[in-house]
Amino acid sequence: MKPGSRTGFVHEVDYISEDGNPVIRVFGRTEDDNSFVSLCTEFKPYFYCLPGPGYSSKQLLKRILSPEVSMPAHVIEASLEKKMRLGDEITLVRVTLDSPREVRSSRSLLRQIPAVEEIFEKDILFKRRFIIDTGINPLGAVVLGNKTVTNRWPVDIVYENGVPECREEYLHASDLRVLALDIEVACRAGLPNPQLDPIIMIGLADSKGTRILSYGRSGGDIEICESEGDMIRRFSTIVREGDYDLLLGYNSDSFDLPYLRTRARKNGLRLCLGRDLSELTYQPGSVMGRSIIRGRINIDLYPPVRRMLNLPTYKLSEVYSHLSGREKEELEVGEIRDLWSSGREEDAVSIARYCASDVEATMYIAMEVLPTLIELSKHTKQLLADVARMGQSQMVEWLLIREAHGRGELVPNKPTRTELSRRRRETYEGGYVLEPRKGLQENIVALDFRSLYPTIIVTHNVDISTLDCDCCPEDNVSPTGHHFCRRQEGFIPSILGRLVDRRKEIKVELAEVDPGSPELTRLNAMQSALKILSNSFYGYSGYPQARWYSKESAESVAAWGREYIKMAIAEAEAEGFQVIYSDTDSVFMTIQGAVGTELVVRAMEFLRRINSSLPGDIELEYQGFSPRGFFVSKKRYALISEDGRITTKGLEVVRRDWSRIAKETQRSVLRSILEDGDPSRAAEEVRQAIRRVSERSVPVEDLVISTRMTKTLQSYDADAPHVALAKRLKESGEEIRKGSNIEYVVRKGSGRVGDRAQSVSEARKKDYDIDYYIENQILPPSMRILSSFGYREEDLRYYKTKQSTLDGF
DNA sequence: TACCAGAGGAG
DNA sequence: AAATCCTCTGGTA
Question: Which among A173, A180, A177 is positioned nearest to A139, based on CA atoms?
Fold first, then answer.
């Protein structure tokens, strides 16, 4: 390191235009705790032109450089460059431009030249191009020079050293200055309207504690401001003076931050939270918009939580209680308005308590998901804020783009519209599912292939570049007839292989670490990020929008998967096991007469034998033992473990779109059957539930059926119950959109369920349809289990005569 | 009764 | 902005 220079860690990267020239800005914090920005004016955007048939790359270069092509004034350089493309070396013309804004226009002009076959890498965002080409690691270290300018922005140090030198070292998450925020709005009716409804409180939490800003009301620990405007100004000051690196919210991208900006404007202010003092901007998106705070990491936790957790709803309170096991303070929207308008001190304190619990819950959730997001950022080498907004396919794609650049591989283009629709019509066969042996089963061993699809990709070298090579065609042919080269390691297999190996190492380390140590959290985050990434490659290769799309690869992986699982089933049966069920990569089996330990020992012997014949990394593992299980149909079963814990798959118990009474009744039926091994207690539970429904002693909450709108109201062809209700709700002025949860209770009467579906607030105990809840909610899920013991529906309707013949069961 | 659209889950 | 396989419901002809 040069004298006087120091190390900094990268938080954010963007660019601005100065006199039409791009200036890249790398924001972060130095190791001695000063925020910095490092400016780079040397980096320019570029793309590649591939010469068409009949043209050499030299001819194309000449054409591009010739004045009569009127090469856009913005081209500042063109040169030849060699790249690898699907295993072949090709020469392209690299065209460098003076500004990222001119990429689009220059690209269109160049495409008109007949010698240009196709243009590559023109749609890689400028800041991402910079990160990839310079080798900068987001959250990683850069060596900063010593050429500094001061007093330009409210960052501590400004460097003007051009491209920073990078180091393989990363910041500690605990070094980030984190601020979580949440606003409360006094809302007249319906959804908050930023034109009319003021913000009444701002909750802020950082490592030192929680602060609540408000105005016009005192009480508790509220920090009093003079007005809404003053409160917003105070908030901006706190962000700037605390010089936070990471701003967090829950739904903050689409709610809190744009709302703050609009209210600031209403008060004649500008919401300037950026490290360059710039105003917050809102960038609308096709699915969800994004709030931009320049120079700071801005994360809305809602999208990553939505992707990383599987929950019935994603309300802040639900997510918090799922992760922490604790409940948080709650207030209804109307309550906030009433408490605020009362003007009483204790009411303001109630709102403040609620606001504090929201912002603290946000911080709690962040601590749970950030470690994994940070690891994903390190692997994909994308900015943390971008990773938090990316889907799995995008993460895989950026990982591949970065690797491609390092290896001199040309990045394939995204599919054209016609290619995309062609790909969408292509289908292929997926995993194998064995029809289960239905009913109650005892002494079950579960086995599964460890990371089946990733290990198939690595072991069989499945890749576009290895597909149908000419050098070794007999060997390594998938059951779909596709051959993959053995001699040259494929692009994707080599990357995936590294991820899979790394995860294996971490799992070994994990086994040696003390429970409860901080090292455990870190290693867990590392392995979970690797798991997310490695499991995404197969789906990515079959994803029509993927740059490295390969139906042949996806199809071959699935076909090999079917072959291995069917082989495992056949071998198990040949060794005397009875296979009860199998889905994709798992097998459930038993041996007549063998119980507990003996069965497990036999299974282990079987594993040893089968694994010695399996190629490469492909490995069948012991998963667990269940004294009893009940199998209803494909993808629907329940198992009990030796310590009495029940896992249920696919059945109503685990579905969001059944009433609680239906799910709880089914749950108790399963429990009784799996614990007792006979159905008499279970049948009695069903009769009790039916009796309670008939007597109207079931609370309305237990009758609510919740269904999600998966598309916009107008695009529905069929009038399902939730759609019919949604249409009525819209009539009465409610906001219904894609993603809305429609909750309803079925009222008594005749006709369609949809016509009788009423929203929860209107529903009354005396109005619900007893018959519907017995016949359509309680009986079907219970009968799926009890019918296998000979029960009929009339045996369970409590008011009917019990069938004496069944008492002997 | 047969069929379809739609929802949500498994792996 | 990952894939396919699968079951079940309510509505309609």
Answer: A173
Q: Are strands A157-159 and A148-149 parallel, antiparallel or unpaired?
A: antiparallel
Q: Beta strand pairing status for A209-215 and A157-159?
A: unpaired
Helix (H) or strand (E) holding A96: strand A88-97
For a pLDDT cut of 70, what percent of chain A falls above it?
95
Interatomic separation, CA of residue A287 and C1' of nucleotide C1, rounded (Å) = 9
Amino acid found at A224: I
* CA A229 from centroid of its chain's CA atoms: 36
Length of chain A: 809
Taking only the tens place, the pLDDT of each residue in A618-664 is 999 999 999 999 999 999 999 999 999 999 999 999 999 999 999 99
| Closest nucleotide relative to residue A532's CA, C1' based | C2
Question: Would you say A79 and A93 are in contact if contact means Cβ atoms under 8 Å apart?
Answer: yes
A533 touches strand C (CB under 7 A): no
Q: Is the CB of A806 under 7 A from strand C?
A: no
Q: Name the CATH topology of A175-380.
A: Nucleotidyltransferase; domain 5 (3.30.420)
Distance A554 CA to B10 C1' (A): 19
**pLDDT digits 0-9 by tens, A353-399:** 999 999 999 999 999 999 999 999 999 999 999 999 999 999 999 99
Q: What CATH number belongs to A414-491+537-640?
A: 3.90.1600.10
Predicted local confidence at residue A803, as pLDDT: 44
- Contact present, A289 and A257 (Cβ < 8 Å): no
For domain A1-170, give the fold.
DNA Polymerase; Chain A, domain 1 (3.30.342)
Domain A649-797: what homologous superfamily?
Answer: B family DNA polymerase, thumb domain (1.10.132.60)
Q: Which residue is nearest to nucleotide B11 (CA to C1')?
A: A584
Nucleotide closest to A706 measured between CA and C1': B7
Phi, psi at A300, each rounded to 5°: -95, 120
Q: How many angstroms is C1' of B3 away from CA of A787?
A: 27
Please name the residues in contact with A506: beta carbons below 8 A apart, sequence gap of 6 or more: A523, A526, A527, A530
* Helices and strands, number each (H, E), in chain A: 25, 29
Residue A730 CA and nucleotide C11 C1' are separated, in Å, by 21
| Kind and range of the H or E run holding A386 | helix A384-387
